[in-house]
Amino acid sequence: MDLITHPWPWYVAGPLIGLVVPALLILGNKTFGISSSLRHICAACIPANISFFKYDWKKESWNLFFVAGIVLGGFTAAQFLSANHPVNITAQTHTLLKQQGVKDFNGLLPKDIFSFDQLLTLRGFIFMVIGGFLVGFGTRYAGGCTSGHAIMGISNLQWPSLVATCCFMAGGFIMTWFILPYLLHL
Amino acid sequence: MRNIKYLFAGLLFGIVLVKSEVISWFRVQEMFRLQSFHMYGIIGSAIAVGMISVLIIKRFKIKTLSGEPIVIPDKKFNWGNVYGGLIFGLGWAITGACPGPLFAQIGSGFLVTSVTLLSAILGTWVYGLVREKLPQ
């Protein structure tokens, strides 16, 4: 049981994630990609006569079942398969984040930033609301996210996906190294 | 009902995302600070397994469960891959989550990340609204 409740190492988790690619193809010719679900939600709930959202989203509803499954999987793992250890990040990152103002290291996310009472502070608003907006806008503009481009696209040797993945990483480095230290101190 | 199998696939994927701590903001910070191999190992080995699987599927012309030939559409390059990619990267480092982990974070009990998800949906919607004015 310990093997299950302990965090899984990369060489177990990575290959399992990679297997989602053939699993979806064989289950029904579906290409792995999660950010499309956000577009389908827009098309289903708030199409507002925008041409980008005028398509038959019901044909893509498998994707909505898939993301609903992810929510259930998150619940299952947290409720029944975890021992609630703090994330075992390296000492360097821990020290650096502490210096930059992060206080809570007990969960998967720092609760001093990600919580409902932080939502109305400038810092909380940036981390949750602005951050989320950038994720939704950027992935659609890029035509995919980590799953659709980095994993599915590169697996299928698509060079535009490699370009997109390099840009994901570049954006992440720019934020982490040059902007985040200021945001954390807000 | 034929979609239930995707719910189940998502469930297994969600479990892996939580158990490997991919959904942790801290792990994403570690990755972008180049201080740990964990996330690179996960993404790298996922790509390796995905690539081998796609090769096998193409080489042996494996079919879907219902017997159709498997077709994977090609991705065409446009400048959105670059600009959008950079924008998503900025967001990924702040929220510590790409879209998949966002769903798993909500399920694992961080209900506040549903605000992040709603905001991501809004971001997608605004993209749809302004896309014809953006360089592609």
TrEMBL record, chain A:
Coiled coil: none annotated. It is found in: Cell inner membrane. The keyword Kinase does not apply. The keyword Membrane applies. Keywords: Cell inner membrane, Cell membrane, Membrane, Transmembrane, Transmembrane helix, Transport. Its main location: membrane. The chain crosses the membrane at residues 12-29, 62-81, 120-142, 162-184. One of its GO terms (cellular component) is plasma membrane. It comes from the Bacteria. It is a multi-pass membrane protein. Belongs to the TsuA/YedE (TC 9.B.102) family. PANTHER family: INNER MEMBRANE PROTEIN YEDE, SULPHUR TRANSPORT DOMAIN-CONTAINING PROTEIN. This is Uncharacterized protein.
TrEMBL record, chain B:
The chain crosses the membrane at residues 36-57, 77-94, 106-130. It comes from the Bacteria. The keyword Transmembrane helix applies. InterPro entries: Sulf_transp_TsuA/YedE (IPR007272). Keywords: Membrane, Transmembrane, Transmembrane helix. This is Uncharacterized protein. It comes from Mucilaginibacter gossypiicola.
